[in-house]
Amino acid sequence: MPTKRLVLIGKPGCHLCDDARIAVTHVIAALPPELSVEFTEQSIIDDEELHAKYRDEIPVVLINDRVHTIWRVDPERLRAALQEEIE
What we know:
Blueprint: E1 4-10, H1 15-30, E2 37-43, H2 48-54, E3 60-63, E4 66-70, H3 75-83
Parallel strand pairs: 1-2
Antiparallel strand pairs: 1-3, 3-4
């Protein structure tokens, strides 16, 4: 199974972003070892395009460049999405 790219878009000082980071890292840590996930974070503070696009929706979780969720991460939904075959 190919590596999935997961991006958490947020900003410093955002409590929902902190909650999302915790949920994402717990889900990734509990995945079977054969599943490969590349996790990165991006701040809307550092990127004008991200700021314009997502400023009212953070945190945003992207999986393979597609929006998976905004505001609150549902760990079970995230786990299921990461375990799906890439289409």
